[in-house]
Design a protein that fits this description.
The complex is a heterodimer of chains A (773) and B (148).
Chain A lengths: L1 H21 L3 H5 L1 H12 L1 H5 L4 E9 L4 E8 L1 H24 L6 H20 L3 H19 L6 H32 L4 H4 L3 H5 L4 H15 L8 H4 L5 H10 L4 H13 L3 H21 L6 H22 L2 H32 L15 H15 L5 H14 L5 H27 L15 H19 L5 H13 L15 H18 L1 H6 L1 H36 L4 H23 L13 H20 L3 H21 L3 H22 L11 H27 L5 H14 L4 H9 L1 H26 L7
Antiparallel strand pairs in A: 1-2
Helix pairs in contact in A: 1-6, 3-5, 5-6, 5-13, 5-17, 5-21, 5-22, 6-7, 7-8, 8-11, 11-14, 13-17, 14-16, 15-16, 15-20, 16-17, 16-20, 17-18, 17-19, 17-21, 17-22, 18-20, 18-21, 19-21, 19-23, 20-23, 26-30, 27-28, 28-29, 31-32, 32-33
Chain B lengths: L3 H24 L7 H19 L1 H8 L3 H17 L13 E6 L2 E6 H26 L13
Antiparallel strand pairs in B: 1-2
Classes of the chains: A mainly alpha (773), B mainly alpha (148).
Organism (chain B): Natronogracilivirga saccharolytica
Protein name (chain B): Na+/H+ antiporter subunit B
Subcellular location (chain B): Cell membrane
């Protein structure tokens, strides 16, 4: 599984070159990658279906007390998600080639979408808590790139940032939750945690853990009140929306809670929080979908509704709900992926996604029409589609809720009425009725763009009529994975006449009526107020929050960084003096045992040279150049001290850095106005006091540090181990590139980011910072 | 800067400095030197060239955009970290290959790739900043405007 993931990431990075090799056929070549992963996962199906699980582990970061392993755990739940991710991924790669054909950014799209696929696959396959988090963050990051794909457009960039901030903050909460979970239980692998749920549930930290994990899952899966980012993210190109925002990424939160259900679930808090938020989300968003006329917005809100349904099922926590969850997730991935792709095809071929400006496309786009119709029938939950089976079980599960079944079922029915109407809108409006003049002359989408919807819609029919194809092999293991123990059930289309069936008929009738009166309903004041309250208000709240944060940042920047270097230094030094000084005096106290016997003559000479240069600088430093020369002398003297103590590497670095610094500062000085001596005596005295106290504190710290007995253990270890273990005699270099390479890596990344930042700042002022942020 | 002495000396020196930086780089594992120090000397060479002949000429000599150098450097770091993972070792474990050829033993290793990454990042960082500042000449404040 690790090799599979590394292969995906590797080929994702090579995608631009592969694109240059195959040009417009690149999509078909690159689609082999997700297809290959799909087949690889499929080979595990017999093993998983017979109740087995797979764990694989590779050490990633090993430390004395704590390991992070790249470990993978494959059971029914992760297999189902893995198959959805790679299967739909195959069609998305094909579809993207058609949809973005001709765009200069197509190679970039392939890279980003494959990187995303790898990350998403990582989330569902990873076993270790930390590696789950790493992949989780990778999905946030790659989705940022994908949502902001049309980066020339401001609303794209805003949507990308919004999605990143909302899911990113949730991600941090999740990290805290996972770390707490790991330390509370002592287990870092999900596969072992699954059997240790009682430890967590009875732990004092259960509630904080639960809340933090829920914060991560709810933001990712767009639960109320965080649901606003998902419709916003529709600014992404349609292949991205179809993949990330219906089939995969938004289900990461659902997956996480399903995965954690045996560990965190089965409590009242769980049921109230997960079930309650799910129920609220599904009801609110189902009706919101009716207030829009943009195909993608309608689908986006129906997706939020589906996510709410999944959360509700996880919250219900009954055996029946788990069965419903597995079936519902699978059916939703099929019909919603197809519908999104068709919506994109309509947009692509007809030039608009507004259902009011579309009509009568059925003869122009027959294949898309059939695919959309089948998918929408499945979404509406009409037999013989797989979506019907899913909705029946959802109703059954809602009726079987351990508390307030009436509330659950009535809200679920109410929401599904809206979804039936939405299903009718997305098919009947664009494809049927009178042909309408569209911005572009519509014709059928190319093969690469209809094959995905056609296959997915076809599967909705096949699995609906022949559910036994997947019930024991895929649905049962997946549901058992969420339940935590083996279950047994089978799926069938016809259950006889029972309460769920009657409710389904009522839902359908309600949906038809709502569709009939959609136009007046959409234009009504009540609907506008509803949209304002539930769709716009959370978004406006988010924007106010971000604006507030920016204002706060602006204020504190103006106070702390007003452009005067001397102010910065004052702030830094005073903060250090107070913080370090207080800790030092309260914890250690002053140690006055400096030894001067070992100090040699030339060291004294250097000391005096440094002092004199400082003195000259202070006394005659009326030009900046003099001051820099003075600082240079201090630097070079330091290099000499390093050299005398045998630190050749350090000395060389110091000399080189000092030289380059002088050049840098000289270059900057050109732009800086001349020093004017206008400061009052009081301000000079203040600076003097701060400088002297900082120097004094530093000296006292050094006295204290040298007074403590020197522990040579670490340096001796490096001296001894350097050659045998790392084949190098220069300990400094060996430490940098081998023993502590991870630290160096972090530092180099800081250097790289600083370089980019300086470059951007300098270049920005050059081209006139008229467009300042 | 229009100075005959500086121009002549730079032409002679730049080759020596680049060689010296490579020398420092390669001996770094056993003797003082290494990617960081070598990178500083290398950056010094291009800085000198930029001062003598202007940044445009220096950019031509460098051929690659300094920011791109940083990117390649980061890539080298990551590659050196990932290679050992193929043999199921942790990220960034040192992997060694000893090649003997004509009585000389060459040590090829992932720490070497790592050090190349450090070198490229250091050169890229300093050169990017210095070029950017050099080009940032405000007319009137600058007394060296001969490179445009």
């Amino acid at each position: 599984m690790l090799i599979n993931l590394l292969l995906i990431f590797g080929i994702a990075l090579l995608a631009p070159w592969i694109y240059n090799l195959f040009k417009e056929r690149a999509g078909w070549v690159l689609a082999l990658l997700p297809l290959g992963s799909f087949i690889y996962l499929l080979t595990w199906l017999p093993h998983i279906a017979s109740g087995g699980t797979v764990t694989q582990s590779t050490t990633w970061v090993s430390m004395a007390y704590f390991n992070v392993d790249l470990s993978f755990y494959l059971d029914g739940l992760s297999l189902m998600f893995g198959l959805i991710i790679t299967g739909i991924g195959t069609f998305i790669v094909l579809y993207g080639g058609g949809y973005l054909g001709g765009s200069t950014y197509l190679p970039r799209f392939y890279s980003a979408i494959l990187l995303f696929m790898g990350s998403m696959l990582g989330v569902v396959l990873a076993d270790n808590l930390i590696s789950i988090f790493v992949f989780w963050e990778l999905t946030s990051f790659t989705s940022f790139l994908l949502i902001g794909f049309s980066h020339e457009q401001e609303n794209s960039r805003k949507a990308a940032l919004q999605a990143l901030l909302v899911t990113g903050i949730g991600g941090l909460a999740l990290l805290a939750g996972l770390v707490l979970m790991g330390f509370a239980s002592g287990h870092w692998e999900v596969s072992t945690l699954l059997n240790e749920g009682d430890i967590i549930r009875n732990h004092g930290l259960y509630l904080p853990i639960l809340l933090l994990v829920l914060a991560g899952a709810f933001t990712k899966s767009a639960q109320f009140p965080f649901h606003f980012w998902l419709p916003g993210a529709m600014a992404a190109p349609t292949p991205v929306s179809a993949y990330l925002h219906s089939a995969t990424m938004v289900k990461a939160g659902v997956y996480l809670l399903a995965r954690m259900h045996p560990v965190l679930g089965f409590t009242e808090t769980w049921m109230i929080l997960v079930g309650g938020f799910g129920l609220a989300t599904l009801l609110i968003s189902a009706w919101l979908s009716l207030s829009f006329t943009d195909l993608k917005q309608i689908l986006a809100y129906s997706t939020v509704m589906a996510l709410g349904t999944m959360m509700m099922l996880i919250g219900l926590g009954t055996e029946l709900a788990m069965k419903g969850l597995a079936v519902y997730i699978f059916s939703h991935a099929m019909y919603k992926g197809a519908l999104f792709m068709v919506a994109g095809a309509v947009d692509h071929e007809a030039g608009t996604r507004d259902v009011l400006k579309l009509g009568g496309l059925r003869s122009l786009m027959p294949i898309s029409m059939v695919a959309a119709a089948l998918a929408a029938i499945s979404m509406a939950g009409i037999p013989p589609m797989f979506g019907f089976i899913a909705k029946e079980i959802v109703y059954e599960a809602a009726l079987g809720a351990s508390a307030w079944p009436v509330v659950f079922i009535s809200l679920a029915v109410l929401a599904n009425i809206a979804i039936v109407a939405a299903s009718a809108i997305v098919v009947l409006r664009p494809f049927f009725g009178q042909p309408v003049e569209t911005p572009k002359k519509a014709h059928e989408a190319p093969l690469s763009m209809w094959i995905g919807p056609a296959v997915l819609a076809g599967m909705s029919v096949i699995f609906g009529i022949l559910p036994f194809l997947i019930d024991k092999t895929l649905m049962l293991p997946a549901a058992s994975g969420v339940w935590g123990e083996p279950m047994d059930f089978y799926l069938s289309l016809w259950h006889g006449i029972n309460l769920p069936l009657i409710l389904s008929v009522a839902t359908l009738a309600g949906g038809v009526i709502v569709y009939r009166f959609w136009d007046p309903l959409r234009e009504s004041a009540a609907m506008k107020a509803y949209q304002g309250g539930f769709a716009d208000l959370p978004r406006i709240g988010y924007e106010k929050l971000v604006d507030g944060m920016l204002a706060l940042a602006g204020w504190q920047t103006r106070v702390l960084q007003n452009g005067l270097m001397s102010n910065y230094l004052t702030t830094i030094l005073v903060a250090a003096l107070v913080g370090i000084g207080y800790t030092f005096l309260s914890r250690s106290g002053i140690v006055m045992t400096p030894t001067f016997e070992e100090v040699r003559v030339f060291e004294w000479a250097l000391f005096i040279a440094v002092l004199t240069s400082l003195g000259i600088m202070l006394a005659f430093g009326h030009s900046r150049l003099t001051m820099i020369v003075g600082a240079g002398i201090v630097g070079f003297s330091l290099a000499l001290i390093y050299l005398m103590h045998g630190a050749a590497d350090l000395a060389m670095t110091q000399i080189l850095v000092e030289t380059l610094t002088v050049i840098l500062v000289a270059l900057v000085l050109i732009h800086v106005p001349k020093l004017t001596e206008s400061r009052s005596a009081a301000s000079r005295t203040k600076d003097g006091v701060i400088a002297v106290s900082a120097g004094l504190l530093m000296t006292l710290l050094i006295f204290a540090a040298t007074a403590a007995p020197f522990d040579a253990f670490i340096s001796e270890f490096y001296a001894e181990a350097s050659y045998p273990m790392a084949h190098g005699r220069n300990i400094v270099n060996v430490i940098l590139v081998d023993f502590r390479a991870l630290d160096t890596m972090g530092e180099v990344v800081v250097v790289a980011i600083a370089g980019l930042a300086v470059y951007a700042l300098v270049k920005m002022t050059r081209h006139g910072a008229s467009k300042k942020a | 800067m229009n100075s005959l002495i500086l121009h002549t000396a730079t032409r002679l020196l730049i080759g020596v400095m680049v060689l010296f930086s490579l020398f420092l780089f390669f001996r770094g594992h056993d003797e003082p030197g290494g990617g960081f120090i070598g990178g500083l000397v290398g950056a010094g060479a291009f800085t000198l060239y930029a001062i003598a002949f202007g940044t445009e000429a220096a950019r031509r000599v460098l051929r690659i955009h300094p920011i791109t150098l940083i990117a390649y450097g980061l890539l080298a770091l990551v590659i050196s970290g990932i290679i050992p993972m193929f043999t199921a070792d942790p990220f960034l474990t040192g992997k060694w290959l000893f090649i003997e050829w004509g009585g000389v033993e060459a040590k090829l290793s992932t720490p070497l790739i790592f050090d190349i990454g450090v070198y490229l990042c250091v050169v890229g960082f300093i050169v990017a900043v210095i070029f950017a500042l050099e080009e940032e000449k405000v007319p009137g404040l600058s007394n060296r405007s001969s490179n445009k």
